Amino acid sequence: MDMITDAQQVARAETQRAIQGATAKAAAGHTSAHGEYLTFRLGGEEYGIDILRVQEIRSYEQPTRIANSPAFLKGVVNLRGVIVPIIDLRVKLNCATADFNAFTVVIVLNIKGRVVGAVVDSVSDVLELGGEQIKPAPSMNSNVDMSFITGIANVGERMLILMDITGLMSSADMGLIEQTAEAA
Predict the structure, then answer these.
(1) How many beta carbons lie within 10 A of that of residue 148, not counting itself?
(2) Distance of CA 139 to the CA centre of its chain
(3) Taking the model in full, what pTM does it have?
(4) Cα(72)–Cα(36) distance, rounded to whole angstroms?
(5) Which of the residues in the chain have pLDDT under 50?
């Protein structure tokens, strides 16, 4: 069990280091065709999100349930005085349900000035991807919502599904981020 705890601490420290480095690069005005992505698992699939949206990674704690909320909203937690809604991405993205275990974490995101938590099965690592590694998302029929998939990245034998986490979390059906007149 100590190895699991140690691995979680190392993963959190590496992620925080990468977040700080990426934030410093952005503040210094460094821009390039590549991006840094936090990778995580949902079931058997691996996803990537823009590291600049990640505020921190926390171990999963049972949130306070909100009555009559959608199934993907697990509830809310108090994070240093801020009430944070916790979204189960497995439910939202229609993935197979998984057990909550020592690897289950909450990725705390800052989306349009709002703090939101996303439950994932585990966090893998932070990857820097160049434009040549990222391919466009495949076209699907109109019954499949691919609007939150920004691309597919090949990293060795791994295939990452890159997500627009800002678009997903601020979509009208989530009801988390207030829609402005511009966005309507």
Answers:
(1) 18
(2) 23
(3) 0.74
(4) 27
(5) 3, 22-33, 180-184
